[in-house]
Amino acid sequence: MSIEDDQDDQFLIKSVFTELGVENELLFFNNGKLALDYLCTTQRQPFLILCDVNMPIMNGLELHQAIAESDFLRKKAIPFVFLTTAANATLVNQAYFQSVQGFYQKANTYEDLKQQMKSIYEYWQGCLHPNSYLGQ
After folding, report:
1. Across the strands, what pairs with 2?
2. In whole angstroms, what is the distance from residue 129 CA to residue 66 CA?
3. Is pLDDT above 70 for 132?
4. N or C: which end of the chain has fewer CB within 10 A?
5. Dist CA 31 CA 92 (whole Å)
6. SS3 35
7. Is 74 strand, coil or helix?
């Protein structure tokens, strides 16, 4: 899942995942509220949440907090990683205070973004977490 309100960034993220050969379905949401509504109603198990910080209606920090406060969503144990242009010490501290699993500042070039996405995807693909054992 990608929660990102910038259409250009959505296009770049989709292009990178396609180029990397990631087979997971990529869902985009323009704000945290839309993503939260989806997460609260779907039985599907998202592999990973990539989330911008600054968005209208519900920002990334508010979305992450709402997930943490929901027993239903907490049990899904979905890795949550911020990917944002808005990176400063205050935001990074707030995110880690909420126990986010990662915080990345969006790369300035396509190749650097591709490397970021590759690193994030490969880490979570190989990492053991509660989702690793679903259905086993």
Report:
1. 28, 50
2. 20
3. no
4. C
5. 19
6. helix
7. helix
